[in-house]
Design a protein that fits this description.
Layout (H helix, E strand, L loop, with lengths): L1 E6 L3 H6 L2 H8 L3 E5 L10 H4 L4 E6 L10 E6 L4 E7 L13 E8 L3 E9 L7 H23 L3 E7 L23 H12 L3 E2 H5 L8 E2 L5 H4 L2 E2 L2 E5 L7 E6 L11 E5 L1
Parallel strand pairs: 1-2, 7-8
Antiparallel strand pairs: 1-14, 2-4, 3-4, 5-6, 6-7, 8-12, 9-12, 10-11, 13-14
Helix pairs in contact: 4-5
Length: about 260
């Protein structure tokens, strides 16, 4: 089972540049997109309903062209979508179109839940860091309830925090900047302490790879980047972990896709 996740920084723009179509070359069973910046009605049919896939969307209720997430599920006899959720349990945190929760029955893995999130950025104004931390805590509460109900959990997306110094090119210079604040990183420590596995770092403990680069400074050309995009799995899926990759050769956004394979 192959899963892909990508912050496309605008789904309509991604399609026009041809980046969206490049996803199908990877042939994922499920792919999750963040920062779609679009309502489904604004998308061409090739994007809203691509052949061989069923698509689910959520968008910001606050303003147009902001945030938004999508999940595409390939038609398959191996799994069946049982339900879809659009809330992590607190209305005030569900208005920006940041989370889709897919409940899946898989013949090999049983009951699974795939959470696709565009987690908040803590920058801009001071209250956004508070909002980000509230979102983090509520999301962890939400997935812990799923685990207690016996569900296997995968969560993915743009987490908007680099976990450790290996995960960004200039850790000392960014230690006081959102995205690498100790309080943000503490939440990722907490996630790991609960048993969730950062799949890329589990399989590649010393490899330096990034998934986001600042476009304004042409940072990708110099590979001055951050690893902000993740696939985490609950520990009951660890025996099935086959591979975890950062596809930094795929262009079309300030982020690149990340990929997870389960066997």
């Amino acid at each position: 089972m192959k899963l892909l996740s990508w912050n496309v920084n605008g789904l309509r723009a991604s399609f026009k540049k041809g980046a969206f179509n490049s996803i199908f070359e990877v042939d994922p069973d499920i792919f999750c997109l963040q920062e779609t910046k679009a309502h489904p009605d604004q998308l061409p049919p090739e994007v809203s309903n691509p052949a061989g896939y069923h698509a689910y969307f959520d968008h910001s209720k606050m303003r147009k062209g902001y945030s938004g997430v999508a999940i595409y599920v390939k038609d398959s006899s191996k799994y069946k979508v049982s339900s879809i959720e659009y809330s992590i349990g607190k209305k005030e945190l569900d208005q920006e179109g940041r989370m889709l929760i897919l409940h899946l029955n898989h013949v090999d893995f049983g009951e699974m839940v795939i959470c696709n999130g565009y987690f908040p950025n803590g920058g801009e104004e001071a209250h956004r860091l508070e909002y980000k931390l509230k979102f983090y805590e509520q999301f962890l509460t939400f997935i812990e309830k799923l685990r207690k109900a016996g569900k296997k959990v995968i969560f993915t997306g743009d987490i908007n925090t680099a976990h450790n110094e290996i995960d960004l090119s200039r850790p000392k210079e960014n230690s006081q900047h959102t995205g690498f604040l100790r309080i943000e990183r503490d939440w990722l420590d907490k996630v790991v302490s609960k048993g969730y596995v950062d799949t890329f770092r589990h399989l590649h403990p010393t490899e330096v790879k990034y998934s986001w680069w600042d476009m304004k400074t042409f940072a990708r050309d110099r590979n001055v980047g951050w690893r902000l995009d993740y696939f985490f799995i609950s520990p009951d899926l660890l025996p099935h972990l086959k591979s975890a990759k950062i596809l930094d050769n795929m262009m079309g956004s300030d982020h690149c896709p990340v990929m997870l394979e389960l066997k």
